[in-house]
Design brief:
Riboflavin biosynthesis protein RibD; 15 strands; alpha/beta; five-stranded mixed sheet; zinc; about 325 residues
Amino acid sequence: MARAVELGEAARGTTAPNPAVGCVIVKDEQIVGEGATAAGGRPHAEKAALDAAGAAAKGATLYTTLEPCAHDSERGPTCAAIIPEAGISEVVIACADPDPRTAGSGIEMLRAAGIDVRMGPNAAAARSLSGYLTRIMLGRPRVTLKLALSIDGKIALPSGESKWLTGEDARAHVHAERASADMILVGRGTYEADQPRLDVRLPGLEDKSPARALLSRTAEPLEGWTMLRSPTDIMALPVNDLLVEGGSGVATAFLAEDLVDRILIYRAPILIGEGQSSIGYIGLDKINDAHGRWRAVAGEALGIDRLEVYERLRDLDQEG
């Protein structure tokens, strides 16, 4: 399953609105086939792994990060149907699919075909599928907010100068995050000040540069950009993972609407003092109301800088 998660994670940012699934087929303790959801969403991971395994799939165990699909599609076969046809004897699934078109039906189809189905460890798989799961359960992409800050929480000098606040290692990490996103969003101020490319400039990952979006109530449409007039417009985006990079205004707007699920803070070892704050008023009037909303989930050194990762606590987390 760890290998299946690895395959799915590598496909993130290329499969939306389909999930980035990984699949591994094992026979006699040897991997005989593996695959991930292809760019654009088809073929599915299970189909790719079965094609790779060929006749060796008969009597084998299939590991997949998400419950095999059970609904018909003009774009390809139903995975819960082709798995029995290939002679698979056992299926291990990391995460159930909350999509109402499948939700349990995939497991039922497999069991009805005489296949032994087990639910496996899902924590790592749920993280790799987090964008898709968020979109199905909340009706919008999973939103990651990226902030580059000084020790005292400033994003720029009073003049607006902020280049470069963090070092090369932190910037490389940002590009890796971009490669896992379906779309990057900035505000009009960031666009006009920096004319950002918002691409991925890591060797071997240049082709994983995500789509670009601009948040502005008044800007004219830009060729090659998706225009959003309000943060809530993300509800209509056919993407799983949205990375919000640009500016205090955008960060404030998304936080005020409670649309941020994850925050990446790249903290530079510098003090700015008087300068531009990272976030404005987000609707909190009491300190007590700020508690219990976020949890720190990771932290690491990135060269001279430090990365802090926070996740939003929501009712669906507590429900499992």
